[in-house]
Amino acid sequence: xxxxxxxxxxxxxxxxxxxxxxxxxxxxxxxxxxxxxxxxxxxxxxxxxxxxxxxxxxxxxxxxxxxxxxxxxxxxxxxxxxxxxxxxxxxxxxxxxxxxxxxxxxxxxxxxxxxxxxxxxxxxxxxxxxxxxxxxxxxxxxxxxxxxxxxxxxxxxxxxxxxxxxxxxxxxxxxxxxxxxx
Length: 182
What we know:
Elements: H1 2-6, E1 12-15, H2 18-35, H3 37-42, H4 57-66, H5 68-89, E2 95-98, H6 99-104, H7 106-117, H8 125-137, H9 151-155, H10 158-168, H11 173-178
Parallel strand pairs: 1-2
């Protein structure tokens, strides 16, 4: 955070439902394992003292439910603390964005992004809309994943969900609900 403060770097943090985030993560890890095993083995979010490629399917699931949420909880806790500090000291706080904002109100989010990252220049609503339209028109170059509703809920058992939520809420349940993580 010192580097951010020293150089007045503006930060944006995008959040999503933790269950969907974890399913996306395990899917990406499995893809890495198949295509770039060394990359999969260098990951640390699910580290249980074994290389990812040496873990059994049961160990991977255990790590996904019991270890990865600890990493995410620590990540969010750190940024939530920093956000509060910025607000208390009158510094520019990180811009928190939810995946839902991106998929449902992209024009509003884009306007908030340009205002946050370039506060000196003022963009008209027409310019923001034109930029968004142009971006969305080049579908061969821009991947805009709207997600699959419910896949996180379907992937985990009720006990696994309870474990994940109990770990995650330690970072700040109210804020994590506000930002769409829980």
